[in-house]
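Reagents: none. Just compute today. von Willebrand factor A domain-containing protein 5A-like.
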Amino acid sequence: MNRCGLLTLQKEPVPLKSIEVELEVRDHVATVVSTLNYENKEDKPLEAVFVFPLPGDAAVCHFSAKIGQTQIVAEVKEKQKEYDDALSSGQQAFLLEESDQSPDIFSLSVGSLPPGESASIRLEYVTELSVQADDGLRFCLPAVLNPRYQPQGSEGAGVQVTSVPASLVPYSLSFSARVSSPRPISKVESNCSLDPLQYLNTDQTQATVKLAAGHKFDRDVELLIYYKDAHQPTAVVEAGQASAEPGSLMGDSVVMVSLYPEFPQSVMSSMASCGEFVFLMDRSGSMGCPITNSKQQETRISSARWAHHIFHPSQSCSLKDTLLLLLKSLPMGCYFNIYSFGSGYEHIFPKSVEYSQQTMEEALKKVEQMEANLGGTEILQPLKHIYSQPCIPNQPRQLFVFTDGEVGNTKEVIDLVKKNSGSHRCFSFGIGEGASSALINGMAKEGGGHAQFITGTDRMQPKVMQSLRFALQPAVVDISVTWDLPKEVSVTVLSPPITALFQGQRSLIYAQLSGQVRACSEAAEGCVTVKYSLAGHPSENQLHFSLSPAEDTGLTVHRLGARTLIRSLEMDERENRGQQDGGVKEKVVQLSVQSGVSSSFTAFIAVNKDNSEMIQGPLVRRNIPTPREFISKEKIKLCQAQTEDEDRLELRGIYSAAPEQPPRDPLLHLVSLQGASGCWLLDPALATALGKTNEEVEKSKPEKANSEVWATILALIWLHGFKMDAKDEWELLAMKAASWLRAQNAPCVTECVDAGNVLLGCSVKKEALGL
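Predicted 3D structure written out:
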């Protein structure tokens, strides 16, 4: 019987009724307060267990429960049996703890909820917003939790997730955000429907926005916040807690420094012409799911023919198209290989090969045949194989990992990347709703690379090409950070050493300021200097900052600094596990308890000791379902059967044409015709891509012009004339084409540009083409 109106797939009543989320963004730091409302409408006492995702780098700093008029604030304690003991003795208890396998999954247990009782749970965390390719700051409220694949033989029991299709999620979500910054807010965008942005003041430095009613839980809630003059280095000093012990992290001041290194243009224009590029593609079964749950979306890999029948193409592009762009943009003289993985793994070449027309064509042919058909998500073994391959002299290894992040051994994977960080850079891409932020961000951070997330209607190409530009950027080496402070103030850096710097990307440093900070005059200043070497050029970025504490930041900066140090210590503990020194774990527990920020060794525990009535009878456990991406088995079977029928008809000659394919994107069509060296051939396929007849293209060619020079100039004019809105996607391959043209030292370049403009109806200057 549906007594409470809300049921799981197993027809069990669901005690969670609604979730309310309030977001406060100050510049690039977010504070999130979630309130979860429970009600037990059954006639038995319940234990409600809710496993849900949080951002992987969130610092969870508050957990409380309200039952009737009684408010209970949880304390951070070392993981122990206090919760179980309280339940077994008939007391009400509440537990919030991080998963042992992945720091972006939490479990919330509401224990001993009597019949007819309601409980309101309040959870608070702070996190930094990541910088996107278009300078937006990304906040993501993970709503989708996909089951995580647990590889065979791995440690731990894995994360037990109760999930249902998004359309069947039995509770509601309300979401509101308040944004403030020293700089004006240009706009706020989202992958979900928002009510209009409301500015709170005339200089537009404060605004509020709300999620429109009727959110379906079919996607993570993503906000992109844009400020004017976003790339401004800043430093925020936060005063310590008056009640905390002086000299402790919470008792001292903490500074958060944000730097945006700007490299000399002369260095940035000389992209590297060497490197070993290894692309690792997830081909597990879940990559056949749509990028979002909308019927108008492509699958993540967009390859299996049945997937095309289920999901119509949209502006979201497939991984295959992205690989086409990547392979066309690689520099001559580099090496490359493509791995794909599921339950096992495959590679196109036995070892990385030199990039040439032949190897590029061979790779593209294999990519075209790829499907999401390799089973589970076992990323560890292909990574171990890649790292076991000897590095090629003078070819720095750059690893690009594309995955939906549904793995159960996140920490093991991140530790492996860190162990090999001296021999490569790792660029990671989380594809689709529910991609593990802990995995994607962790791999990039420990691998000295950059992380990107592709969800909803995002075009994958601009984000991937930005990462390729970073990979081709000369490596920044000899990075050092120095501090210049008044003599009565000393500094302890909380962040791990900076291992990578990229043009225009933010670097964060947290540091504890000890000594007589409060005694300093209002005019007292500190200075932080980051020195590094780029392509043999020594450079530095310097920031002067006031030592006066900021107002109204609470303890946000302290908690983020504590979280940063806790994550570093946890990794040290995993590396040294089994050795005699157990001091690292004790240090983590002490720091976690002191700062009120959870860790893998601690949990938030609250016991209602005021409740004099013992709860009678055995507790009934109810697992609260989370939304997941969902394709019904019936739909897959139906489409596979349809494809098999078409195949049989095709063999008998009754059905000769392939299913109608959507017209290919004109840009990708033109790109697919480019040679590895950067040039195009003068042939009918090029004429079609340019929207002309072969006769028109041949007739317009200046008499003395070389055919390939003419074809390449036409392609460049078309790109500059018609596709400037997608310049991020084709800029690198256009630079390669211009470089090829300059190497030809060909006559008639000016005549070709003029004739090409007339033929294509453009007015592109020769200089704009890089000639």
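The chain has 18 helices and 34 strands.
Action item: order primers for follow-up constructs.
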